Amino acid sequence: MTVFWRKYNELCDERGIKPRTLATELGISAATVTKWVNDGMPNLEMITRIAEYFDVPIDYLINGDDTPIIPEANKKRSVFKSVSSLSQRWVSLRRGSEISLETQLKIIPYVNCTVQFLNNDKYIEYSPEAKYDTDHLKDTETIFDILGILDHCADTESYRIVQVQLSRIVLYHLKEKGFDREALRTEHLDQEKMEYLYTGKEGGKSHNYGLNFSDMDFLREFTGLSYQVMFTGVE
């Protein structure tokens, strides 16, 4: 029995609800629950849904040490910490995503955001998750992973969202370095796309995308800032 399945059952018992009944209420199929019984694990979307229902942090559901339930104020950081440490076989960040979990778990701490921010384009304004750990800068390959993501066509909604959110992180750091919205009003950047990135106001599906590699290359030359600075804010 996995730690998750044990704790899921315990929480269901406390609420007086059967595990399979709750799963159905949460939109999770009976076949998926059977996989959990047989030592399978939920993906991140499912485990987040369950954690929100029981009002517990994700790490409570996956840690084997019966960690006490963390107070509300600490949940956001707890979720970020847990997602960063999950083994690859446990979760897929988004169903149908072409971006591997391994790559996602490298990107999240590198750009200092939460998994929720990276995968929800309703989060328009980025703010750093915590004080930046410069040890992440040692992994120089992550820059190329990010540029590769921005350089591909978004064939799925989940891929598009990651591109958009990475772009919003870039715009945040550009503003911090003195290049705000007005400074980037140039014919070299699609201004309808920029409007969408800054405000979330949709200007037609053809403009609801993130910065591409050509945009990033222009911004590097235009601002004199390195890719590292644009992704992390760190010189």
UniProtKB/TrEMBL annotation:
Which domain of life, per UniProt?
Answer: Bacteria
Q: Name one GO molecular function term.
A: DNA binding
**Stretches assigned to the HTH cro/C1-type domain:** 10-61
> Record's InterPro entries?
Cro/C1-type_HTH, Lambda_DNA-bd_dom_sf
Q: What is this protein called?
A: Helix-turn-helix transcriptional regulator
Q: Which species is this UniProt entry from? A: Ruminococcus bicirculans (ex Wegman et al. 2014)
